């Protein structure tokens, strides 16, 4: 079956037209935006040169260097819009299509899906028209949340900040080339500590461009990241002044560059430690429940907590697509975490005991329940599935150090996990290979 998500909708009916152009034909937006950025940068440099009555050689030098700095900052985003965004889009399309997409919309976008007729009725699954409507609705939702247009406003803000800071760094040391009595000379002379300012701006610029390149390489660039970059560039000098105030000038310049190259969350932690040391306050670290999930490291837990997920129960209440987008984590990995979270919700900490048997996630338990039901339907009472359930019962009893839970209770809990609506979504989203046959 073809993946309907790969064909974006073009109208409000969310029905995919057969004559839609292929996805590859859309991957030229970055080039056009790049041409617009070059034109705007040159226009602004020309206007600034005329307005400030700069000498021609100085105007050309400042304009050329500024254009290079602006385009170096913009290139990662242009590459992402043309290639990385589409690769990320297709990652979700490879997991959510057909019945899986219908279940996803039912769970997290029920009202919109109901209004557009995108939900499947009955056990037969969605028909061709419902699949097309579901694909078009998903495309519309995805573009609203993460479309290339969403990057335009923060990218514009970032490039304007880079443009003006680059002009300042270029023009300040060249102010001696201005004719005598030029108003810009007196204006720039009012600013002191240029080395500190330029060092802080350069460090922040290095971090912004480097982090953007790294995010584009991993195809996890987010709109919120660009807003953080804008804030990082704007606050580079104030942060440098606040932290290097008591340092000698020779050391302050180097420290300012190092501070500029740090991410904003590291700066916040540093400032918090400084404040706590002054107030004699001690931070207490609480154990993170997310670290109990297989595959979750402290860095991944921090990414999830940044999106408001601080407990296992909260994980099941989040839209997995939006969570994958905002954290930059692979969609398959998010689904795997949610599969583990279902078992944790039903069994609590006792779920750890089932990990050696491969039953720590909902998909494995659902497959076991299917095998158990098949064996019962065939009249088997000592099938491999029964033996696995017996082993799971013994492991759970070793945790509780009692005769509980008994075999009937374990079967009941496993049945609830298999019947859990979210488990059905995970199974249809590629967790059950038989569903793809």
Automatic annotation (TrEMBL):
The keyword Ribosomal protein does not apply. The keyword Acyltransferase does not apply. The chain crosses the membrane at residues 33-50, 56-78, 151-174, 194-214, 226-245, 251-271. Keywords: Membrane, Transmembrane, Transmembrane helix. This is Transmembrane protein. It comes from Chromobacterium sinusclupearum.
């Amino acid at each position: 079956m073809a993946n309907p998500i790969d064909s974006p909708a073009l109208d409000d009916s969310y029905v995919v037209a057969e004559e839609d152009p292929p996805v590859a034909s859309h991957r030229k937006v970055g080039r056009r935006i790049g041409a617009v950025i070059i034109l705007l940068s040159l226009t602004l440099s020309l206007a600034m040169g005329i307005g400030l009555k700069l000498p021609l050689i100085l105007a050309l030098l400042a304009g050329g260097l500024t254009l290079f700095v602006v385009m170096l900052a913009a290139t990662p985003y242009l590459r992402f819009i043309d290639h990385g965004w589409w690769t990320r889009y297709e990652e979700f399309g490879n997991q959510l299509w057909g019945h899986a997409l219908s279940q996803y919309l039912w769970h997290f976008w029920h009202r919109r899906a109901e209004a557009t007729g995108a939900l499947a009725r009955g056990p037969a699954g969605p028909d061709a028209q419902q699949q097309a409507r579901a694909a078009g609705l998903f495309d519309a939702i995805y573009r609203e949340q993460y479309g290339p247009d969403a990057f335009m406003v923060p990218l514009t803000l970032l490039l304007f900040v880079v443009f003006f800071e680059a002009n300042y760094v270029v023009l300040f040391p060249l102010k001696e080339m201005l004719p005598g009595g030029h108003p810009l000379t007196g204006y720039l002379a009012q600013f002191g500590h240029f080395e500190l300012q330029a060092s802080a701006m350069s460090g922040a610029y290095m971090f912004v461009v480097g982090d953007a390149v790294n995010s584009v390489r991993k195809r996890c660039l987010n709109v919120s990241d660009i807003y953080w970059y804008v804030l990082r560039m704007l606050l580079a000098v104030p942060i440098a002044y606040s932290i290097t105030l008591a340092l000698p000038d020779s050391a302050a310049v180097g420290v300012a560059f190092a501070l500029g190259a740090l991410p904003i969350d590291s700066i916040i932690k540093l400032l918090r430690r400084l404040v706590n040391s002054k107030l004699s306050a001690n931070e207490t670290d609480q154990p993170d429940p997310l670290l109990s999930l297989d595959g979750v490291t402290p860095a991944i837990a921090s990414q999830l907590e940044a999106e408001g997920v601080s407990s296992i129960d909260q994980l099941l209440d989040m839209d997995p697509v939006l969570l994958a987008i905002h954290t930059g984590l692979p969609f398959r990995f998010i689904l795997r975490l949610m599969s583990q979270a279902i078992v944790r919700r039903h069994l609590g900490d006792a779920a750890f005991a089932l990990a050696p048997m491969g039953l720590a996630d909902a998909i494995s338990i659902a497959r076991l329940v299917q095998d158990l039901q098949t064996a019962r339907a065939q009249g088997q009472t000592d099938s491999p599935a029964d033996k696995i359930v017996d082993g799971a019962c013994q492991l759970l009893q070793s945790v509780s150090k009692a005769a509980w839970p008994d075999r009937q209770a374990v079967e009941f809990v496993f049945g609830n996990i298999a019947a859990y609506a979210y488990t059905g979504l995970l199974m249809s989203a590629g967790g059950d290979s038989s569903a793809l046959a």
